[in-house]
Amino acid sequence: MTRRLQEIHYNDLVKSGLSDETIESMGCFSMSGEGIYQEVFNSDEVSAKWRRASGYIIPFMQDGKEVSRRYRMFWADKDNVDGKAPKYLTVLGGETNLYVPPGFDQVYAASEYLVITEGEKKAAKAVQEGIACVGLSGIDMWADSAARKIEK
After folding, report:
1. What is residue 53's three-state secondary structure?
2. How many CB atoms lie within 10 A of CB 133?
3. Per-residue DSSP letters for 80-148?
4. CA distance 79 to 51
5. Taking the C-alpha atoms of 54, 67, 99 and 132 in order, what is their torsion angle to the nearest 10 degrees?
6. Residues in contact with 55: Cβ distance below 8 Å, sequence separation at least 6, in sequence order
């Protein structure tokens, strides 16, 4: 297990079929719920719900530079009533970017096709298996941000 990930976060990535090598190359790392809240909402006024949460970051890289992030959240049971707490977040008002997994260029160069899927972990798994694939962030990323309400 990579030292940058808490066990629960590492296990979530492994459950998606990702190898240690893929997880390491993706650059994922754990962060406290408080830290995620501060990045997503650009605010230091963190509620207890966010202090009880944690998550991991999936960096979106382009030309060796991070261009955006997705946050995979893990909530305390009492804060995820009816499973309505968001599973994934991105910075409020941030751009929607295509997720190009590490190793994509090499796989794509040897491929005759391109697969587009929903989700960063699915795209990374496909590339791991030799399938040229990029990922679109979850369906909510394409909705009007004003129409989405996240309980802070």
Report:
1. coil
2. 25
3. SGGG-S-SEE--TTPPP--B--TTHHHHHHT-S--EEEESHHHHHHHHHTT--EEEEPPGGGGS-TTT-
4. 11
5. -130
6. 9, 30, 31, 33, 36, 71, 72, 73, 74, 89
Determine the Cα–Cα distance for residues 8 and 21; give it in Å rounded to an integer: 18
Give me the residue label for tokens 């994922």.
28
Token pair of 76, please?
A: 């305390």
133 DSSP 8-state letter: E
Distance of CA 41 to the CA centre of its chain: 16
Give the pLDDT score at 139.
65
pTM over cut 0.85: yes
Helix (H) or strand (E) holding 106: helix 104-109
User: What does each of the 152 residues of the chain score in pLDDT, given as a tens digit?
Assistant: 557 999 999 999 999 999 999 999 999 999 999 999 999 999 888 889 999 999 999 999 999 999 999 999 999 988 877 777 889 999 888 888 899 999 999 999 999 999 999 999 999 999 999 999 999 987 665 555 555 555 55
Q: Which amino acid, 60?
A: F
